Amino acid sequence: MPWATFDDVLAADIKDGQTVILNGVASGSLTAATATSGGISGTVLPNNQGSTLWGTLKGVPMPDGLKNGSDVRVLFAKNGSTRAGTYWIGLLHKVGDVNLAATGQQLTHVAAGFPLTRLKGSGASVPVRGIPLLLTTTALSTTAAVISNIKYRNQAGNVITGTQSFTYPSSTTVVGSTFFPSLERGDCAIQDVTEVNVGTASATGAAALYLFEPIVPLSIFVAGSITQTDLLRGARFGLPRVNEPVPASGSIASQLAAVLCSNVASTNTGTFLLRLVKQA
Amino acid sequence: MPVLSPEQVSAQVHADNYDDQIIDIHVRSTRSIPLSGAATLTRNGPWAEPVPNPLPTGCAAFIPEAVEIADSAAAGPFLMYEAVLLGSIDCATGVFTDGVPFPTRKALGITRQLSGQVLVEMATDQVSQRTITVTYVNQDGVGGRTSAAHTITLAALQDSTGILVLQVGDTGVQDITNVTATGGTAPSGTINFWGIIPIIVIPPGIGLGGFTVNLLAEGVVRRLEAGATIRFLQLNSQAASRSIGALRYVYDTAGAALAGNKNPLLSVANLMENQAAFGELAVGLNVRHTPATASGGPTAGFHNVQCWDRDYVVPALGAGIEGAVISNYGGHAAPTTEQVLVWKTVMGTLTVAGNSFSAGSAMPSRKHLGRTAAEQTVAKLPVLYVKTSLSGGTFATVTITYTNQDGVSGRTATVGALPTANPPAGSGYFVAPHLQAGDTGMLSVQGMSVSGVTGGVFELWGCVDLAHEVLFTTAGGANVQVTLPHLPPLLQAGDLLNVLRVNSTTAVGSFCEFDLIGVAA
Known about the structure:
Shape of chain A: globular
Strand order of the largest sheet of chain B: 2-12-8-14-4-16
Helix content of chain B: under 10%
Oligomer: heterodimer
């Protein structure tokens, strides 16, 4: 039975609430975005335990009883990261891997079918809309790769053959550097990406492509300060879900991690607390 | 019953009756300023999804609850608005294609034709340039009104925008009936004309951190209909940037609204109740303080003050509404300047030629929010306004004879010598620093006289401040905290609202918006 009152939420917190920690790994100095590579830099902040940067990401470590098949919500969160910028804790849904060392269509999509959906109270399954996030997993060398365009399913579910090119900001773009490919004018989100067409290959280079679903806002305005977000009676009136959505087919293994959006890509260490509550 | 409280909002969220959306735009290079003059600087902001049509099962409307935006340039605040396509013009052929007027909706208890500002959008890159003039129906339903003739900047870029300059005296547009385009050499391009129904102004990123705005907590309640077009505008900037944000809507539920309460500012629940009962009136104003004005000084108000050359007039209120109050105010201004929204009473007019004074109105008695009886209002922010540019002299000194806050008549205030010779129209001077010793405000003005100039017209405004904004001092400036009076006077139909700009004399245009909410009788 969904919570009807604030007291219902707080009673559930007494019973089932848990504070979990994302002890972020130091990202190192990354390569910043430019106007032709999405315009804003990202930094993915996974947990330092369980992650092997940058190929294997471990998000917030949670007890199985909270994660597996439950309705898990965030009551509040804190961010004590070292860099200022716009942070979200959200779900990274892997779309696939991109080979930047060859031309042509170079996206190897994960086996799971997209779009991912969430069941709403109305009984309808609504597609998850997110932000395309490109995380460099093998450093580039010799040549700055150019993605001529991407083909994607936009926020409305329409298949779009994009015209926006993406030029990596450096021929030696380092691992971990994270970017947000631009969409067509009028589009604001993706449900899926089906093609990444590399026009100019780098000598080496690879990236992981994610659909990032932001859930908890946790911006830091002054480096070194701490931000707190109340999702019951503050930034939001109502706890957002952190459960994985349902793929169209197969299975996904998403990670609940933090992403920083900024226009610099200096080293950052992210530390977050989340208070999670299970809605029965 | 509609959703009427934060707890009910949360219950909807916990029942998964909400929608998370992403907003995004990438402007790769600086946009143009398409409309010349003291333009209100804007460009298209992040794209957003329309409200679905049809709405989800069981959903009566979309309530925008919260939004935050990451902006790589942190260059200016964002306006979230409901957009109405009033029309478009093909610059190659000069053919105007009519769209739709502002909608008819229940607002302040009356189903009425809404009106607002017009956003001129370069829907495509322009080739050459046209001069456009817009014919429209104004906020009062008067047709045949014409805008300023805007010469579009040569080769203005796609997604560059500007706000239409209306005919003198007009504060809004109900509908566009025609657009004429002249000039240019082999011109081409499409220009859209969007009606703006403002929702909220979102501060820019500071330190590149995105501000989370909880609209309901900020006094903004909307129940958006199926198919509503939602857009964002970046104010005070044409800069290149990438803006990515998250927006949450909560599903409204159907049912009859409650009757409304007497204090919609007491709580979010009270506000939601009255918005459902009466409908909010969302007001967006293109406040152009132009031309440049004259400075104040230690003998003339201590501040530089700019007054708007027209007033927003509070429209008729529906039956069952005792008055209206401001629930939210949003605007942008240059760093270290302020906007003040005031309710003004013209207490007197001085025609310099002949030193001819004409008495205006005294400050009225008015019920205040949460109070049971009407109480005398006091002009604690009297403003000496230059209505017609002064001329023929050097430095004016104005003597004002008035009745003070306690009803004592024959009191005297002297403003001047004004530090600028022959200040232009639009200049204002705070009178409060120059009231007679012991006084705090005015109830009425018995006389005004001037020396030092031979031409021009002054007005003495009895102002009651309705909203002061506190600005970020960087990043394009947007109010991050608006001070509203605890117990504001209940506004009535016909009340005049003006927007003062303080600490600047530069000619500039600023967009500001506020909601008027009804107070139940």
